[in-house]
Write a structure and sequence with these properties.
Layout (H helix, E strand, L loop, with lengths): L1 H10 L2 H21 L6 E4 L2 H4 L4 H11 L7 E6 H5 L2 H14 L2 E7 L6 H4 L6 E4 L1 H4 L6 H16 L3 E4 L5 H9 L4 E2 L10 H10 L14 E2 L1
Parallel strand pairs: 1-2, 2-3, 3-4, 4-5, 5-6, 6-7
Helix pairs in contact: 2-4, 4-6
Amino acid sequence: MGRLLGPAEHTGLIHPLTEWVMLTAIRQCRSWQKEGLRVPLAINLSARSLFDPLLPDRLITLLQNCDLAAEMFGVEITESSIMADPVRARQILLRIHEIGVRIAIDDFGVGYSSLGYLRKLPVDRLKVDKSFVVNMAYEAGNAAIVRSTIDLAHNLGVEVVAEGVEDTQTYNQLLKLACDRAQGYLFSEPLSSRDFSVWLRESTWGLVKNRHPDGRSCA
């Protein structure tokens, strides 16, 4: 997909491509609901897509046409995308948030933006970049960064997801730090939608079994 985004942005095809991705994701989420699987789903937005003034209206239309509640859908944006034009980004994100769509900052920590600025944005979730998470059980510096990010985000009322969790030591440490969610190869490799449906029902990390006693879970 990474090889496709560059040419799509330069040729003007990024907007129809983004709309296709949104439609496909929304349909899949609705399909899971019909199977009795209530699973929120999010897509990544490129910088060019983020600054499309028609994006919120397209989202509303797709959600209505597919009869999917907005809270079941989310978008993920990198720090660098937002900081390319913070004022425009805030305007678009506010409109998306008003719809009820969840907003996450992806790969947080590598874009050098501050949580102080992010408090001005309608952000529901921060996803801590895997470069800080993957060795945090063995590197005190990374653990301190993750701990500080979790504490500050929680003080702002923002949920935290740790990316790149690959072993139980890291997962257990994140539980102690009160991290809300985690994702990574400890739970599963990337799956097709069909295999993911099976994983939800049968994995030890599935819909019911993935819950820690205090409610935290894998993402």
